[in-house]
Amino acid sequence: MAQSKPSRSSAEVEDIILRRIFHVTLGTGRNQVPPVVYLEQTAAELLSEGRPLLLSMDIMERVLIDRLSTPGLEPPFQYLVQCYGRAQEELRRLPSMKDKPLIPKMEEIVKLARQLSLSYSRIVLGNPDMFPQAAEQKSTLLDLFLSEASTDFAAFGGSSVPLITTPPGFLDDFFRDLEEDSLAPILNQLYEDLKLTTREVASPLQDFQKPLITLKKLIDIPVCAKYLVNHPSWICKGNVVDGRLIEVESILGPFFHVSALPDVFTRQEHDVGHQCFSQAETRRQADLQSTFTTIKTVMHQLYEGLHNVLYHLLKNSNMREKINPLKCASAGMFVNLSAVMLKLCAPFLEDLKKLTLIDPNYILHSSRLDFQSLTALHASSEEIAAWVDRGNYSRTESFRQFQQQREQEERRVLRSQGATSSGSNHASDSVISNSILKSSSDERQTRYSFVTECFFMTARILNLGLLRALSEYKSLMHDLSRSKDALATLEAQRGVGAPPQLEQEIANAKTEIDRLSQQRLCYEAQILRVCYNLLL
């Protein structure tokens, strides 16, 4: 009867799993396939401390730093991405372990290894000089997006040569719960790399699809979309900004640059005319028609992709105009102010006769409120023209009356002074000048009634406060609806073959729904009830 192999201890199983994830060893099993890296320095330190040469959870980070500090190996970021993928694979294999009591502990260890790989991949991207790597072998976050884009492009018949294989879930985990200070240098470099990559594309017959797919994937990630419109290259700034600078230096400029039309900066090998239409007179019509169809197809792909990008950014109110919440008053403050101002307006809003006290000239002459940046008034061009004509007639009539008063004043001064000396003439000019200044000053310093000022101030505050809050409430309801749909989709994936991170994603979705529901109830409590009753 054959003897069964003795079961391995928990420490030995832990060592084997971590060796498979990090591809390192402290002494045993150096000739493994695939090959592993022998960490001589860490092994010597452990021997001096009287510890076994086994990989374990408590020395995991120490081992990882030693491995990343070893020169002459694959780039650190690429290695960490691969470690993440191997950890995902180990999590998938754990349920089939024969030693079932060890599964919970091994699962904890593998998840820690995965999280450590993720954390150090962020550190490496934010501090690329922390660990040794050759400049020509440097891998970037853009490589991962291009890798995914290559897969998507291949599904539509394009060529696919991924630089790095992106493990499932890596990009989602990478951007989850990432602090803004850590995110800024990573995304800044990511968009710069994307801009430089796209800048190499001039012709629609070149591979613009992968950068475009990458851009669309980026704006689908909320933090990436938010950072895009805040990137220094989103809008070119400087003393001299022309069309060519925007086309070259802005992030979207290189995408819009892709064209079949001739350009002085397009190299000959990328010139569509040189590639497709040289010796056109001798070309068969069928060949030319095939070229036209190809260009039409790829340009349509470009238009569709850029349309999706811009539409996604424009439909999201958070992307249209960035507001610093530390400098701008809160929505709650303006909603409260709206409620108080509506109370002040109530007496004359309820009496139609008092509405005639509102002077529309306030919009043009008030120094208290600036309406120039707002939308046009609710009036037809004929109504505006008639109003302007009445205003011009009024000003003309006022000037005629002023001229009569001036002539009468001159005659009075001449009679009283005799009109014989130059001094009298100067006195006359002085009196006339003062009357003119006084008249102009009176016109500029028109005092408007309380009803007029209160009406227009309330209108402006409602625009800044209540209407803004209602718009935010509408966006909140859309976000809540999308989150509920996403949760339903995730819950439908439960069952055999579900990805290991599914339950965590479901928990995150429920947390997000709870947060949005709390905000919805706050809006409904104050705006939809308090302000509705106030308006009644």
Q: Kindly state the mean pLDDT as a whole number?
A: 77
Please tell me what the overall shape is. Answer: extended
Quickly give the structural class: mainly alpha
The level of helicity is 55-70%
- Please count the beta strands (DSSP E, at least 2 residues each): 2
Uncertain stretches: 154-162, 418-444
Distance between the termini: 92 Å
Radius of gyration: 36 Å
Question: How would a crystallographer describe the biggest sheet?
Answer: 2 strands, parallel
Output the helix-strand order.
HEEHHHHHHHHHHHHHHHHHHHHH
Percent strand equals under 5%
Number of helices: 22
Give me the oligomer status.
Answer: single chain
Order of strands, main sheet, comes to 1-2
Account of the 3D structure:
By secondary structure, this protein is mainly α. 64% of the residues lie in helices and 1% in strands. The protein is built from 22 helices and 2 strands. It has a two-stranded parallel ribbon with strand order 1-2. Mean pLDDT is 77; it is low at 154-162 and 418-444.
State the gist of this model:
The protein is an all-alpha fold and 536 residues long.
Defining traits:
2 strands; 536 residues; 22 helices; mainly alpha; 1% strand; two-stranded parallel sheet
What is the topological layout?
Layout: H1 10-22, E1 24-25, E2 37-38, H2 40-48, H3 60-68, H4 76-93, H5 103-126, H6 141-155, H7 170-175, H8 180-199, H9 209-219, H10 222-228, H11 243-249, H12 253-257, H13 272-276, H14 285-315, H15 317-320, H16 331-349, H17 362-365, H18 381-417, H19 422-444, H20 450-464, H21 466-492, H22 502-535
Parallel strand pairs: 1-2
Helix pairs in contact: 1-4, 1-5, 4-5, 5-8, 6-9, 9-14, 16-20, 16-22, 18-19, 20-21, 21-22
